Amino acid sequence: FTLGQSLTRIGIVGFSTVARVLSPLSVSRDELHRSIETYRASGWTSISRGIDAAAALPVRLPRHWAASLPLATLPPARVVMMVLTDGEQNAHLGGAAYAVKAATDAKAAGTTLFAVGFGGAKRETLNAMASAPAEHYAYRGASPAEVTRHFRDFCSAVASPRVPPPPPSHPLPP
């Protein structure tokens, strides 16, 4: 994908005990890199607060679109979230159940969620947080470098079409 006001914008949220928007939705690679490079996590881990803060980022239309096109003619924005964690949500902050609940809420609102972890992150939690199928949307690497190698082509992973999961089977009436 290409960064641009009418194309792709990226926002970055850091989380530990609290979540903080490091960069609102932006098209500036320099701004995005700076926000990542200057972030220093400290405290406990609250994945749910990070997901909630990211889900609350306003997805605003570029001014030139809003002024020139009726809303009904605009395609819906595709929202993709990548959650990157080095551990599990701490128990006193709700534990894995809170992280999974926040992810479930974001997905129910239409967000495609990649759950990515290393260090103390558990594969089961990542799988439960990720969009389906988990084998595509969840990943656990041994180190940050391994995660970087795996997602080197993240743009293709986000943009490639996926076959939707089959509908749930319903029991036959007696």
Structure description:
It is built from eight helices and five strands, in the order E-E-H-H-H-E-H-E-H-H-E-H-H. It is an alpha/beta fold and 174 residues long. Helix 2 runs parallel beside helix 4 and helix 4 packs parallel to helix 5 (123-129). The radius of gyration is 17 Å and the shape is globular. The termini are far apart.
List the helices and strands and how they pair.
Elements: E1 10-15, E2 19-26, H1 29-38, H2 47-55, H3 63-68, E3 80-85, H4 95-108, E4 112-117, H5 123-129, H6 134-137, E5 138-140, H7 144-150, H8 154-159
Parallel strand pairs: 3-4, 4-5
Antiparallel strand pairs: 1-2
The topology string of helices and strands comes to EEHHHEHEHHEHH
Shape: globular
For the biggest β-sheet, the strand order reads 3-4-5
pLDDT average, as an integer? 82
Let me know the number of strands.
5
Number of helices: 8
Rg calc? 17 Å
Sheet with the most strands, sense and barrel status: 3 strands, parallel
What fraction strand? 15-25%
Helix fraction by DSSP (H/I, runs of at least 4): 25-40%
Distance N to C terminus: 50 Å
Structural class: alpha/beta
Low-confidence stretches: 163-167
Compose a concise summary of this entry.
The chain has 174 residues and is of the alpha/beta class. Helices cover 36% and strands 17% of the residues. The protein has a 3-stranded parallel sheet with strand order 3-4-5. A two-stranded antiparallel sheet has the order 1-2.
List the main descriptive attributes of the protein structure presented here.
174 residues, alpha/beta, 3-stranded parallel sheet, 8 helices, 17% strand
